[in-house]
Specification:
414 residues; mainly alpha; 2 strands; disordered N terminus
């Protein structure tokens, strides 16, 4: 009997499609567990807190506040990722951020400088501080842990000095305070026309980002195929596109329900996008990861290890200055306690995001996801009324799990 005349023929082949898809999905996840693990963790955490808080966690207001609160941590985590990739650490960034935020406040309040001069000045001071650390590490051979621990003490004392006489320094500048507290204005009326109460510009920007992502992924896949590089199977590629597209659409819709994009989110996107491009598309990025993988081999291959050390620590200092600006802007003031434990939050976010303590492995997007995981835990537990003691235990356990996960995956890879 022919297949066309046998109705049961399709019933024999159909079940094999699902197992084949599941096998492909399992294989892709196993091969890319370092990349997908953090996304899975973020999804599980957000689902758990959404259920336990009766949907409050996923509300537009809370997600918007979560992203704004994560701003300075994301910025620090991006810089810390590169520092850890080259096998170093920077413990000074917390109080350096607090100190530079206080300098910004003093420059505007006491010195009367305008904000468009203060911000570049603070970023340059951050670069200078990072280069001082790089000099101690690259030229004098002092371990980064010791050098930056000394910086931690110095900047802690400097912060107390500049704020000691007045304590909290109130920042009255509306432009500076808008950086972390205001939102991108909508170009359409909010309460009239189509979708009243929804931020239309955010929807448009989200749609543009979605189209850009799909086009770039398709072009990237074609380029890899042209050079015979390994790519995802077509069914997995489609699943990835659909999943990320749904994620972008969901985030866009949630943010559009409460004032739209904040300026903090815009800054996060710019920083993450710029550093993602540098680390994945430039010679500088390849040299940084080569140095982290094997500094001696990189040096013998012509990579200037000392110069890269200056670049990475200088970049860390600049991002620290930006983090200090974001934090001072959010509080609308500079305080003697600003920067406390920032360095640990940044290190935790970087490790959770997949950077390896052994160096040479890490992604900028991972830093973003790691920071969101870390801050989601804090936000969710606060909404649940969890005590601060239990919060530290949970965050410490998550950090330990992330490092154990890195060790296990690296051991299996060998």
């Amino acid at each position: 009997m022919s297949v066309a005349n046998n109705p049961s023929a399709n019933l024999v082949e159909a079940p094999s499609a699902a197992p084949s898809f599941l096998v492909s999905l399992q294989k892709v996840i196993q091969q890319n567990i370092r990349d997908y693990g953090m996304w899975i963790a973020l999804f599980v955490i957000m689902t758990f807190f959404t259920i336990t808080t009766n949907g409050v966690f996923i509300s537009s207001r809370n997600i918007s506040n979560l992203l704004n609160q994560s701003g300075y941590i994301v910025v620090l985590a991006v810089g810390m990722t590169l520092v850890i990739v080259i096998r170093h650490i920077d413990l000074s960034v917390g109080f350096l951020a607090g100190f530079l935020g206080a300098i910004a406040a003093i420059a505007m309040v006491t010195w009367g400088l305008p904000v468009y001069i203060v911000i570049p000045m603070v970023l340059c001071l951050g670069i200078l501080a990072g280069c001082i650390t790089a000099f101690l590490v690259a030229n004098l051979g002092i371990p980064a842990f010791v050098a930056t621990l000394g910086g931690w003490l110095v900047y802690r004392g400097a912060l107390l000095m500049v704020t000691g006489s007045t304590g909290t320094i109130i920042i009255p500048d509306p432009v500076f305070n808008a950086i972390s507290n205001d939102y991108v204005p909508d170009i359409f009326p909010a309460d009239t026309g189509f979708l009243p109460g929804v931020h239309k510009l955010t929807l448009i920007l989200g749609f543009v980002a979605l189209i850009f992502y799909i086009v770039s992924e398709i072009n990237g896949r074609r380029q890899k195929q042209a050079y015979n590089f390994e790519v995802l199977p077509m069914n997995m590629f489609v699943v990835k596109l659909v999943f990320v597209s749904i994620l972008i659409g969901a985030v866009t819709w949630i943010l559009s329900g409460y004032n739209g994009l904040s300026w903090t989110v815009v800054i996060i996107l710019i920083v993450v996008g710029a550093y993602h491009f540098i680390t994945t598309q430039t010679i500088l990025g390849r040299h940084i990861f080569a140095m982290g993988g094997n500094p001696e081999a990189a040096q013998l291959s012509g990579v200037n290890v000392k110069r890269l050390t200056y670049v990475v620590f200088g970049s860390m200092g600049m991002l620290t200055g930006l983090a200090g600006i974001l934090f001072a802007s959010r509080l609308r003031s500079a305080t003697p306690t600003a920067g406390t434990l920032f360095e640990l939050d940044a290190i935790a976010a970087a490790f959770i995001g997949g950077v390896s303590p052994a160096g040479g492995v890490g992604k900028i997007m991972g830093s973003l996801i790691g920071a969101l995981v870390y801050m989601s835990l804090t936000s969710g537990m606060n909404l649940m009324g969890t005590g601060i003691d239990a919060q530290y235990v949970v965050r410490g356990a998550v950090l330990a799990i992330a490092v154990i996960f890195d060790v296990v995956t690296r051991t299996r890879g060998k």
